[in-house]
Amino acid sequence: MHRAIYEQRPEIGAVLHASPFYSTLVACADLSIPADLFIEDMYYLERVGHVGYFHAGSRELGEAVYEQARQANILFLDNHGVLVYDTSIQEALMGLQTLEMVSRMTITARGAGLELRSLPVSMVADFLENSGYRPRREWPK
Fold it and tell me: Which of 12, 30, 51, 62 has the most crowded Cβ, counting Cβ within 10 A?
């Protein structure tokens, strides 16, 4: 599973496989998380993918991760946990922390009957292209 990411994405310097409570809850539910709420959310969760359930350590899981690795920097592993990968351990940890926070916000808001206020698509695009927060991620083709 980890090797699949490194093979598909040579720029990746760290792969984290974790099962934080709220992110794993999302991985076990039919729920998506927003990537348009706040700065870190827009940047770190720009591309989130899903991999169906396969047994831990199986060849099938590695192959499924391999197929999705180029399209995202965070993968929900259905009924399992998450993979977060980035150019450095610091960036991967920020992605994992952001993922857990947004997962918790989403679940908490739903339970409280609150609707989270998303930023307009044009504002998210402007942030990613022009904000200067961090250089825009270059996604593999």
Answer: 51
CATH classification at residue 56: 3.40.225.10
- Which is nearest to 26 in space by CA: 95, 128, 103, 83? 103
**Strand pairing class (14-18; 48-51):** unpaired
**For the residues 93-111, what does the mean pLDDT come to?**
97
DSSP state, residue 46: S
Q: 19-45, pLDDT tens digit by residue?
A: 999 999 999 999 999 999 999 999 999
The rounded radius of gyration (Å) of the Cα atoms in the chain is: 15
Total residues belonging to the chain: 141
pTM for the structure as a whole: 0.94
